[in-house]
Amino acid sequence: MARLSHGLLGALNCVTLLLSLPVVCAGVYFRMNAATECDRALQLPVIGLGCALLLLSLAGLAGACGRRPAAKPILWAYVVAMFVLIVAVFAFTVFAFVVTNRGAGRAVSGTGYMEYRLGDYSGWLQTRIAEPETWRRVRSCLADARVCGRFDGAVGLGAMNFFRQHLSPIQSGCCKPPTWCGFRYENATFWEAPTSGLSPAAADDGDCRAWSNDQQVLCFQCNACKAGVLATVKKKWKAIATVNAALLALLIVIYTLGCCALRSDGGSRYYKGGGADQT
For residue 27, is pLDDT > 80? Predict the structure, then answer.
């Protein structure tokens, strides 16, 4: 049993070691070649994950295949680190599912896109995105990424064709006024307010007052824009949480093998007495 646990632990850590190398290399490559500061910042978690996986894999290999006296402390450190990692991944996965449980786009009749309202999302997400410094950084990233840039080439697009377009949540919330404001479409970069003025409900709506045809302003200060960002975050977090659930199962298997290896008194039994242990 001990030989089997050591062998499986070593094999699994060989696999994770091989997986960590392209993760680190890809993270470093994309960080060095990123077009904006936001793109560079997004690569830091990838690099951090790859480095952590690399170090854990090396420790697992040393603990599974090393000589008994030297391997036992390494194996102990490896098992403790795996336990901490399992708790962290479990906590993040549960948290991600909880905070992304609420919120969905609302279909707009006669259009190919959906619209989003900030109040539909969890209170924690609303609080984070509403923080002035957080939103300043997000808005800067949106500007760098030119999320509304595709509309520059659609100035001559007719209203019917525009409304049939598929817009991302961010484009729907940040690049045009909300439908309920009643603005009239002139072209993809210009919307005209109703000649009779905004309705009382629209006049009381901060998003309707915040809209501007200035291409540097648009609806970047609207709650609809923040909701569009949260819709994108929700989609990505749900995907990450699903992957984390599978990762958690793998980590538990590896942790169990590490515990079995420790019970055999640490270190590979192939080195006992200078040769293979037959027990």
Answer: yes
Contact indicator for 169, 228 with CB cutoff of 8 Å: yes
**Whole-angstrom distance, CA of residue 226 vs CA of residue 224:** 5
Element (H, E) at 196: none
* 76-79: long-range pairs with CB below 8 Å, 24+: 76/262, 76/266, 78/258, 79/255, 79/258, 79/259, 79/262
- Counting other chains too, the contacts that 215-221 makes at CB distance below 8 Å and 24 or more residues apart are 215/148, 215/189, 216/143, 218/148, 218/174, 218/175, 218/176, 219/173, 219/174, 219/175, 219/176, 219/177, 219/178, 220/139, 220/142, 220/143, 220/174
Which tens digit of pLDDT belongs to each residue from 125-144?
A: 999 999 999 999 899 888 88
pTM attached to this predicted model:
0.80
Q: How confident is the model at residue 208 (pLDDT cuts 50, 70, 90)?
A: very high
Which string of DSSP letters, residue by residue, matches 207-255? HHHH--S-TTTTTTTSHHHHHHHHHHHHHHHHHHHHHHHHHHHHHHHHH
3-class DSSP assignment, residue 106: strand
CA dist 100 and 235 (Å) reads 8
Closest CA to 254 of 19, 46, 21: 19
Contact (CB, 8 A) for 125 and 134:
no
pLDDT digits over 88-106, tens only?
989 988 998 898 888 788 8
**Tokens read off for 235:** 């989609």
Q: With beta carbons less than 8 A apart as the criterion, state whether 135 and 262 touch.
A: no
